[in-house]
Amino acid sequence: MTVLELYRFLENKMPRALSASWDNDGAACIPVPTREARRVLVALDATERVVNRALDEGFDLLLTHHPLLFRGVKSLTPFAAVPRKLLALAQGGVAALSYHTRLDAAAGGVNDVLADLLGLVDVKPLASADEPACARIGSLPAEMSAAEFVAEVKRRLGLSAVLVSGEGTVKTIALCGGEGGDFLDAARAAGADLYLSGRIGYHRMLDAPEEGIIAVEIGHFASEVPVLEALAAWVREADDKIEIVIDTTPTIQLI
């Protein structure tokens, strides 16, 4: 399978129509469309370390959740991080693809994976304003205290600590991986007892209990890194002969 064929397969799995209007995911760099996609590196972010790994270890394609080309690039020079990475990838003939908000919204994507990991049932899409239904809302099998649920979240995701605002009993849970503060109001309007996201924001979390919903912030990376296994599975579905390596080393660390 060529890089271009794999790109078209993934575009069919996660069509551009699922992306938020402000997003810029998809193909950032395909220098050699006919190159065979023998080795694929899957990561959350196209950091310089990850890009260099893709080049140094002979990968044909770098597949990430967060886009390399998220903000405008006005010149291709080695003097700024994003253009420098693009130049290196192009010169090395390595493609870079990303699937961001469309992977949040897609069936089996970021938020379905997270809901499944947390044991939610009867999970449904949850939208905010005019954007795609990236978030999810579902139920716990049985009512429990917020403290019990948070302890289970930490256990299942391997976290030492999370941020919590509010207390009480919970049954209906809404969630959104990554920067999910914009979905808190939709979660409350949909009847959620608790809203969980990677990042919500201090003031939104401060107000949440007074507005009738518990807020839990687990960290951007922790909320999204589980989806890398799903991305890898889709690459295997496209061609089971492709060698896939998943890079889960966090760039931003709590120390």
Please provide a brief summary of the model:
With 255 residues, this protein is an alpha/beta fold. It has helices spanning 3-13, 48-56, 81-92, 101-105, 110-117, 146-157, 184-189, 202-207, 220-224, 227-238; strands at 26-29, 39-43, 61-64, 95-98, 121-126, 135-145, 163-165, 169-179, 194-199, 214-217, 243-247.
Explain what this protein looks like in three dimensions.
The model has no long low-confidence stretch (mean pLDDT 95). The protein has helices spanning 3-13, 48-56, 81-92, 101-105, 110-117, 146-157, 184-189, 202-207, 220-224, 227-238, and strands at 26-29, 39-43, 61-64, 95-98, 121-126, 135-145, 163-165, 169-179, 194-199, 214-217, 243-247. The chain contains 10 helices and 11 strands. The strands form 2 sheets. A 6-stranded mixed sheet has the order 5-6-8-9-10-7. A 5-stranded mixed sheet has the order 1-4-3-2-11, with helices on both faces. With 255 residues, it is α/β, with parallel strands linked by helices. Helix 2 (48-56) links the parallel strand 2 (39-43) and strand 3 (61-64). 34% of the residues lie in helices and 25% in strands.
